[in-house]
Amino acid sequence: MNIGQVIKDSRKEKGIKQGDFSNLCEISQTYLSLIESNRKEPNITTLKTISEKLGIPLPVMFFLSLDEDDIPKRKQEIFKALEPSIKDMIKQIYVND
User: Fold this and answer.
1) How far is the C-alpha of 65 from the C-alpha of 73, rounded, in Å?
2) Residue 44 above 90 pLDDT?
3) How many independent structural domains does the chain possess?
4) What integer is the mean pLDDT of 67-80?
5) How confident is the model at residue 97 (pLDDT cuts 50, 70, 90)?
6) What are the transmembrane regions (predicted)?
7) Can you give the residue range of the structural domain that contains 60?
8) Sequence-separated (6 or more) residues with CB below 8 Å from residue 64
9) CA-derived radius of gyration, the chain
10) At 24, which CATH number?
């Protein structure tokens, strides 16, 4: 799971600078940087704030952060086949403005 990368990519796609976004979320830029680099795991309250400010429902952020290692081995082939299309569709709805 790579929630930090999803946050970073979504923020950048919306054209929001890290410092501005950290202020918007009422967290320090250092903390946001640690979250985006997956060196800190934020609590659920912080994740909810981040998802609200990005306009992306938290369950959608969790889905976007899934990678092959999060999927049971017996279902990885289907995940690999469907992942690009599903993630692209979700990004068209929630990320790309």
Assistant:
1) 18
2) yes
3) 1
4) 92
5) low
6) none
7) 3-94
8) 6, 10, 56, 87, 90, 91
9) 14
10) 1.10.260.40
User: What's the token pair of residue 59?
Assistant: 């369950």
User: CA 57, CA 44: separation in Å to the nearest integer?
Assistant: 13
DSSP string, the chain: --HHHHHHHHHHHTT--HHHHHHHHTS-HHHHHHHHTTSS---HHHHHHHHHHHT--HHHHHHHT--GGGS-GGGHHHHHHHHHHHHHHHHHHHT--
Enter the pTM of the model: 0.87
For residue 65, count CB atoms less than 10 angstroms from its CB and return exposed for 0-12, middle for 13-18, buried for 19 or more.
middle
Do the Cβ atoms of 11 and 54 come closer than 8 Å?
yes
